Request: fold
Amino acid sequence: MKRKVGYFGILLSAGMLMGSGGLSALEIGNDADAVKAAGKLRMLTWRALKDYIEIGMKSTYGHPKEEIKQTFAEFDENLKALKIYVKDPLVKRKLNTIEEKWQNAKVFLNKEPELAEASKYFGNTKALKKIIYETVGMMSRNKGAVIEKSSRLPAVSQALSAIYSLKSWGMKDADKALAVPMRRFRETLDFLEKSPETEPKMAEILQKMEKVYLFFQVMNDAETLTPSLAIKRANEILKDAERLTELYANALKH
Reply:
């Protein structure tokens, strides 16, 4: 019997998923949860890169070898649930393309990490990330802009930690790459803070994120690079962003 659960608030370990011989049976119950699940694919793409880099740098902070397995499992589970739920043929085609590009990405991510390869992956997955963004946009057309905007923040959090780790590893033009998620972070905060759909409990979370935004501004200019601290603060954004998206999604259901 299938269980109907909320996507944000689930922590699925690879062992749980594969222990019974296959992925656990999850369902998406409504359009708001479908947008959240699609948005989560953006975050997981970045988190996989972050884990790959941390493994390459011989870092054990956050247990990247275990987390990357969990990331693979969560991506596959979210995508599988979306393909079952979505009926729009155009969106279905997008999801099929995402699946194809994700399988190619996993082949790379299972190799021994190297800086040159990590930089190459960063460039090569632009097409994957682009089509995920397009898919989220298509799915959120009639659900309100706040759900699409708030679902960007989890991806921004992992993009910041991934690119900052690449910078620490020695990637050229990392500062230029970091400017992109920082700009999206700023634009998303500004949009949500001004939105009439933002309630006091949502505004409280956004204020916490403002402090983390300032932290990354300062840290990006610092001479000493501390990837573990960047990952810690990025994960704070992730936790708050998932809670924020859940609040907006619940509001849209009423």
